[in-house]
Amino acid sequence: MSIELFNLSGKIALVTGSTHGLGMAMAKGLGKAGATIVVNGNSSQQKIDDAIKLYESEGIKAIGYKFNVTDEAQVIDAINKIQSEVGPIDILVNNAGIIKRTPLEEMEVADFKQVIDVDLVSPFIVSKHVVKGMIARKQGKIINICSMMSELGRNTVGAYAAAKGGLKMLTQNMATEWAKHNIQTNGIGPGYFATSQTAPIRVDGHPFNEFIINRTPAAKWGDPDDLAGAAIFLASRASDFVNGHVVYVDGGILATIGKPSNE
Ligand code: GCO
Ligand code: CA
């Protein structure tokens, strides 16, 4: 009975930006809990095809759709196709995101807007079009991938922090508007994980690498697989009365002010 609460068999999960990184790790978690994964990316069909092979090699049922989450017409078209070719979307994970690291006073307005567009506007666009089916079926799970930057600032990531802070409030507002339809909207806020996005700041000898290890009570970078549990929980019946929260999977970063590097 208790394990049944987490069973995702028969469910269809669309995970945006799931050809690599944290999106793929969370999608694999959902897939191993039984869900069929709708894989999305926008860089190339080849990248999607390679990802599908990877999912399938782990026994996960996965189907790929290439579309740009910031382009409403493409999103509408893709969602229509997914719903007729795969089935109704039960679980939506808004994961696709970008980061640009530039001091605010030097940042181009176009770059700032692009980060907001991908990281904040696209979860709105995709949710807007997926939620209609969820409302009709009176059931659904939406998971917005937030960040430490939903709560904290950091030098050079101002646009990203503005978007991720906004995404936390968008999560609360989706919960406010859609919980009555038995749709649970929540967020996952990853701490610092070993992915390609953090590769440039994770290299040995980079001051940021040492800083993160010192700043994280668990004293290490997260393994992307550590996100699967939170994703399964928020996608499953186990969270049917959980609305508008962000689960921070961060090795304790938000619990503490940090410590001097010699402690
Ligand atoms: C950075 C990092 C972060 C992480 C993550 C933290 O430059 O600070 O890239 O923004 O990607 O989102 O939670
Ligand atoms: Ca791993």
Automatic annotation (TrEMBL):
This is Gluconate 5-dehydrogenase. It comes from the Bacteria. Belongs to the short-chain dehydrogenases/reductases (SDR) family. Keywords: Oxidoreductase. SUPFAM superfamilies: NAD(P)-binding Rossmann-fold domains. PANTHER family: 2-DEHYDRO-3-DEOXY-D-GLUCONATE 5-DEHYDROGENASE (PTHR42760:SF5), SHORT-CHAIN DEHYDROGENASES/REDUCTASES FAMILY MEMBER (PTHR42760). GO terms for molecular function: gluconate 5-dehydrogenase activity.
